Amino acid sequence: MNFSGKSGAEYILKATPFDKGGEAEIYDVICKPDLVAKLYKADLNTPEREYKLFEMVANPPNESVLKQIAWPLDVLYDDKGSFAGFVMLKINQKEDLNVIYEYPPSKFADITWAHKIQIAGNLCAVVDAVHLAGHVIGDFNPKNIKVDPEKRSYINGRYRLLSYRSRKVSLHGGHAGISGDGNPEENEAVL
């Protein structure tokens, strides 16, 4: 499947998604193993979502944070020029954050409280960087934060924030991409 990015780049996707959720399917990008494409279901390809993603691509957090979150890198359009989704870095971390903090631990019992505190501090730093870029995370829950405890990559903050279902982007005093689901905080004004 061929798609064009808002940037002018061309993306060829594998024919079959490797993951899917309620809103979209995730595809590998051929010849770009570090990227994946999230293609929305047709009824979710709204102008508001397209604008929100365009603003996120145009106003990313700093480069070091981009390596730790599933941030849109380019907005995708099909061969007819219709909005379809976006491209982001591929997520390699496998475990939900809540598995790390489970008590009593069913897995990863050797992760110390010091490491757990370090994970929390690193996560706070990433969230702060997202906020400094003018964005609010509207679907902030442990299932959208992945870690890889087997490789001990959590020690260096190797986790990824996922899901932009209810993200709000502040734009010149206003906002785009508001949804009514998720956490109560998401219905508050964008600061």
Describe the structure.
Strand 3 and strand 4 (24-28) form a beta hairpin. Residues 152-159 and 162-191 have low confidence and may be disordered. This protein is of the alpha+beta class. The protein has helices at residues 47-58, 63-66, 97-101, 113-132, and strands at 2-5, 10-12, 19-20, 24-28, 35-40, 74-77, 83-89, 95-96, 135-136, 145-147, 159-161, 168-171, 174-176. The chain has 2 domains: 2-89, Phosphorylase Kinase, domain 1; 95-187, no CATH class. The protein contains 4 helices and 13 strands.
Summarize the structure.
The chain is an alpha+beta fold and 191 residues long. It is built from 4 helices and 13 strands. The chain has a 7-stranded antiparallel β-sheet with strand order 2-1-6-7-5-4-3. The chain has a 3-stranded antiparallel β-sheet with strand order 8-10-11. The chain has a 3-stranded antiparallel β-sheet with strand order 9-12-13.
